[in-house]
Amino acid sequence: MIPVSFEYVAPTSVEEALSLLTEHGDEAKILAGGHSLLPLMKLRLAAPAVLVDLGTVDSLRYIREEDGQVSIGAMTTYAAVEHSETIRRVIPMLAQAVSLVGDMQVRNRGTLGGALAHADPAGDMPAVVSALGGSVLVQGPHGQREIDISDFFVDIFTSALEPDEILTEIRLRRQEGAAGSYEKFRRRQIDWAIVGAAVSLSIAGGKIGDARVALTNVGPTPVRATAVENALHGVPVDDLRLEDVSQLASENIDPQPELNASSEYKRHLARVLTRRALQSSLA
Ligand SMILES: Cc1cc2nc3c(=O)[nH]c(=O)nc-3n(C[C@H](O)[C@H](O)[C@H](O)COP(=O)(O)OP(=O)(O)OC[C@H]3O[C@@H](n4cnc5c(N)ncnc54)[C@H](O)[C@@H]3O)c2cc1C
Question: Given the CA of residue 125, which atom of ligand 1 is nearest to it?
Answer without folding.
Answer: 11
